[in-house]
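We emphasize that the prediction below concerns an isolated chain of 207 residues; any contacts that depend on oligomerization or on bound cofactors are therefore not represented. The input was used exactly as deposited, without trimming of termini.
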Amino acid sequence: MFSIYGLSGQLFRGTLEEMNRVRALERAKSARTVARDDDDRGIDAEAGRSHEEAVQAYRAMLPREIERGPLYHADQIMQRRVITVADSDDVAQAWRTLRDHRIHQAPVLDDSAQLVGIVSERDLLTALNIDAGRIIEAINRRVLDVMTTPVIATAPVTDIRRIAAVMLEHGVDGVPITNDRGRLVGFVSRSDILRAVVTDPPLSLWR
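Result of the prediction step, given as a token string:
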């Protein structure tokens, strides 16, 4: 189960497929329709066939009785001690929080500890001038001004492959984990997923 949180609270709650349909409709409304000529469509079709043939060839190489690894859920791999920043923090303070904890992003909470966004080093650098790891100059901005919102979150029982799909689809490096009350209970980063993939016994990606 996935959720989307913004400044006004929870904006969406539903399955990954439902979320993708909603976001696809939003993109369709805001994007222009660009016509492609027949040659482009032919190239796309050929690329699609090549991809499918490669997948089928790979599957044909697999033994019939391949040993299946465990199916991982978010609560099995997530970081439970989550470093957060407040939406009212100034950007310099948030940068120091990320630097001191050696992380590249952090969920953002409002006054009532509700998830409202996520902020990364890239976001903060829009308002900071850093040299050799030190803040040389800072624009008078708060985290609220530079953070990414709305933010996608998911439940602790979510299959990590679906979380990985969200990361790829939406270009994010981590996904906050929230409980039924919308409270932040964990965080799954790309590194967490990679550790699960290489663990022994191996995670089965074809299950």
